[in-house]
């Protein structure tokens, strides 16, 4: 049973919410939230430590607090939010390497839970209808967040071999949406005119933000470590989703679709990559039965219900860029607990 939990990435929406959720568990003595900037919203009973996981000094935080459970939420999907693609890769890959090195040296660590992504399965016209956790990508991701996720998982598997005494779980999420989270996918479906690739109609499978948190919580307390897919039941075709949103579907030939992607990135609307464009062409489905069978977790929201939940909070008429609701509603709030500076953190 976890007693002292360290959560990375608490300045981001899901990381902050998870730290608050874990802090409510009666058996937890202490939750330490780590990031380079203070969280914009209340993280409950969790303590915030300003620390950079890319710095080896993160090991001092783990050792000093005798952390027994590490929950790694700080794998970033958007280059603009990270300060560019190079900074994003450094946070995702180098940050994970340093965190795992710290965990490897800490005898107190008994459990590691990592937020991963279904993007590790890649995107291809030859993909199966549903990916299970034992399947490999038909075409490995070649760039961006998807490639980072593949590397992160590789390092986590290496850590599991070196520390077989640590219970390791990785959760591969389908695209996360909901009323509060701000992602490239939520911004894409908030455009008044939605560019698509002519001749393609990808399958979308979604995870509700509340289900994502519940799945991470289940993996943190569950007694069956492993790799798990997480996603809502069913799929939506891209054309269906656009029709439901009330936006205009604007099909473009592939070269023009890439140009449209570059335009909306420059305008600051969406931080889309070439891998995400491929996802909109073909889509992806994942089988989430393993986490139900082994951990007893089942998503409460289907893909359709997740998208409807998003639409209810993002009605027509909202023009991007917008201020995410969770930031606006909590403007000026302070994280609970003292702020401790560790290891070269930077604003």
Structural account:
The protein is an alpha/beta fold. It is 39% helix and 18% strand. β1 (4-8), α1 and β2 (30-35) form a beta-alpha-beta unit. It is globular, with a radius of gyration of 19 Å. The two termini are 34 Å apart. Residues 317-338 and 343-347 have low confidence and may be disordered.
Summarize the structure.
By secondary structure, the protein is of the alpha/beta class.
Oligomer: single chain
Which structural class matches the secondary elements?
alpha/beta
Mean pLDDT: 86
Uncertain segments are 317-338, 343-347
Shape descriptor: globular
Major sheet characteristics? 8 strands, parallel
Number of strands: 14
> Span between N and C termini?
34 Å
Biggest sheet: strands side by side, in what order? 11-6-5-4-1-2-3-14
* Tally of helical runs: 13
**Helix share, percent:** 25-40%
Order of helices and strands: EHEEHEHHEHEEHEEEHEEHEHHHHHE
Strand percentage, roughly?
15-25%
| Overall radius of gyration | 19 Å
Provide keyphrases for this structure.
14 strands; 8-stranded parallel sheet; two-stranded parallel ribbon; globular; single chain; 13 helices; alpha/beta; 347 residues
Topology (SSEs and partners):
Blueprint: E1 4-8, H1 13-23, E2 30-35, E3 47-51, H2 58-65, E4 69-72, H3 79-82, H4 85-105, E5 111-117, H5 144-162, E6 167-173, E7 175-177, H6 184-188, E8 193-197, E9 203-204, E10 206-208, H7 209-221, E11 227-230, E12 236-237, H8 238-245, E13 248-252, H9 254-266, H10 274-282, H11 289-295, H12 303-313, H13 325-329, E14 339-342
Parallel strand pairs: 1-2, 1-4, 2-3, 3-14, 4-5, 5-6, 6-11, 7-10, 8-13
Antiparallel strand pairs: 9-12
